[in-house]
Amino acid sequence: MNLLAAMRYLAALHAHGHFARAAQACHITQPALSNALRALEAEFGVAIVRRGRVFAGFTPEGEQVLQTGLEMLQSEARLRQRLSAQAGQLQGQLRMAAVPTAMPMLLRFASLLRRQHPGLVPVLHAMSSPDIERGLEELSLDLALGYSDRIRRPRTHCAPQYQEHYYLLQAAPNPACVADSLHAAEPLGWAQAAQQPLCLLTPDMHNRQIVERSLLAVGVQVQPAMETNSVQALLQAVGEGQVASIVPGAVLATVRHTPGLRAWPLVEPVVESEVAFLYQQSQQGMPALEAARALMAQAEWQQQCLQHAGALAAAAPAAQA
Fold first, then answer.
1. Secondary structure (DSSP) of 51-100
2. 74 in a domain, yes or no?
3. What's the total number of domains in the chain?
4. Is residue 79 situated within a structural domain?
5. Residue 185 and residue 179: Cα distance in Å, rounded?
6. What is the pLDDT of residues 12-44, one digit of tens each?
7. Sign of dihedral through CA atoms 222, 227, 231, 235?
8. What's the confidence (pLDDT) of residue 175?
9. Share of the chain above pLDDT 70, in %
10. Quick check: 296 pLDDT over 70?
11. What domain range includes position 248?
């Protein structure tokens, strides 16, 4: 039995929670995956998987085997990365995630990292804050970009990157209005923004919770006209002209050059949320993660944060709301 391969199948089952999808992810048939897991159970003399008509989770012994398997796979990846770096070009995957509203910045970061290390393959996922923390804890993620105030586990290290600021985004009555000047509009109070029909992210999203707290601070109970768990769908809804939205600077920057949109910085109160890179302290020394940590300190990335996130710089004046 190939123990590493079996552990890889076990990790895939954990990640996908479904035998067929795990087999597909491993590029093998479902019977082959099931046979490998049964061989793993025979090897250790314990039941690892709870079986029914569908995958029903892991036994307590299976959880122990899974955790050891994840550590083995991480050690293998670390060794391969070190050997490739010694040979002259760092190679391997860097498994990364971001909360949906920070994904534009993670994409920019991954592009810079790939330029410096062409042998690295960033693998990016949009995930909720609890899923990110769980992924880091279980070693299924190497690095994430999310809200530092959501982290509860002491082994997760936070490296602050920027302060998230918020804007009311709306289609302009005059289609000739260009979004390149949208961030230069006069500041607007949260209470005034709430008077617009709003498309917001769904309540399970931390960004939505920030918006709700900010509106409650000015005595407004949010009543969205539309909800979505997709940032792309939210932006499309705003572009249709029937709703407005409240978005952070990193999302606003992605539509900066889209004609027909305008935005106002939200004040009264000014709300800021810290966005940080997150990783397990035990993973320091992983060559791909060390390359990413080095990039965090470089001026080129810090300039990206100033230009595309946080409080966006003003350009030409825009029309008033």
1. ESSSEEEE-HHHHHHHHHHHHHHHHHHHHHHHHHHHTTS--EEEEEEE-G
2. no
3. 3
4. no
5. 11
6. 888 888 999 989 989 999 999 999 999 999 999
7. negative
8. 54
9. 93
10. yes
11. 165-272
